[in-house]
Amino acid sequence: MRLGVAAALVDGTLLPGDVAIDDGVVTALGVGAGGGHGIAAPGFVDLQVNGFAGVDFQVADGDAYLRAGEALLATGVTAFQPTFITAPEVDLATALRAMPVEGCGPRIIGAHLEGPFLSPRRLGAHDAAGCRAPDLALLRRLLDAGPVTEMTLAPELHGAFELIDELVARGVTVSCGHSDATAAEAHLAFDRGARTVTHLFNAMRPSAPRDPGIAMAALARNDVTVQVIVDGHHLAGETVLVAWQAARGRFALVSDAVGAAGMEDGRYALGGAEVTAQGGVVRRADGTLAGSAVPMIEAVRHLHALGAKLEEALTAASAVPARIAGRQDLGRLAVGAPADVVVLDDRLDVQRTLVAGGEHVAR
Ligand code: ZN
């Protein structure tokens, strides 16, 4: 099968020509020249998705995952991490057990546990009652309840390094976030094996000239990849651009989408609690931002509109997050790689999404 595209994003460069797919795998790139329409990019890899299309993954059943998965495909996402925020152990274990391993449309990489080992000072929309001090036994029970591939924790908490060691030993990505860590505390965590941060700048110690905090520490280190929400609401454009320029090639877009994504304004659930979407901005009743309503393709458009080259913005939505997840097989178009592809037109609208060569046509 040929996609009929004019070019494809290969290793960060637009290669003219079509893409050939056979048996779920890319078999040729740069085929022929001219005549095609649109570009093929690696399918988007979203590391932080709380919900989508009215679905709150924390309390979702198989049918709900299917509905959300279908809507995620329509926005170009071919792999994602359902993300469960701070909650009592029994609720997190139930959510982990209910998470399907496959068959909901996009690939499910594994769960992203955002909490419960977070700083009480930087909770954002998380529920303080579910927040816990680092507890290795609890961590082990959670990891045993279902496939976890990323955990967000506050590394400055007493006992957090034991958790980092356990997560690294079990191959789980350690992401620092909802954290009041100073730069010095952050460096210790990065040296210990944490290699990324969750929604850079948001729910982090604010940066000051002589107290740069974890956000600046992450930007200053070439071995740390930053995950960033670029929805036009969580960060000012200048903040995004400074981070983009500081962290070229190690800047990953995440949606942090909640059930309001892909839907009208209204009331939705996040981790079982009510949130309200108004004008595309999602907040708790107290006004705290509570995830976003913006899908990955819109984050790509935002980043591109701010001045990022399209090729690099698309890479920030695919290869970079795949690398954070340790999934070098995903997020790239290469001969022999799985045919997880999004086809975009000149306006960056999603025309088709394929997972392992299987088709989803935009409605
Ligand atoms: Zn968060």
Short description:
This protein has 363 residues and is α/β, with parallel strands linked by helices.
The overall pLDDT, averaged over residues, is: 96
Specify the overall morphology.
globular
The CATH class of the largest domain? Alpha Beta
CATH topology of the largest domain: the name is TIM Barrel
CATH superfamily of the largest domain: Metal-dependent hydrolases
Total helices: the number is 10
In whole angstroms, the N-to-C terminal distance is: 21 Å
Query: What is the count of structural domains?
Result: 2
Note down, in words, how this protein is organized:
With 363 residues, the chain is of the alpha/beta class. The chain has two domains: 1-42 and 331-363, Roll (Urease, subunit C, domain 1); 44-328, Metal-dependent hydrolases (TIM Barrel, Alpha-Beta Barrel), CATH 3.20.20. It has ten helices and 23 strands. The strands form five sheets. Strands 6, 9, 10, 11, 12, 13, 14, 15 and 16 form a nine-stranded parallel β-sheet that branches. The protein has a six-stranded mixed β-sheet with strand order 2-1-5-21-22-23, with helices on one face. Helix 5 crosses helix 6 and helix 8 (296-305) packs antiparallel against helix 9 (310-316). The longest helix is centred in the first third of the chain and has 13 residues, at 62-74. It is globular, with a radius of gyration of 19 Å.
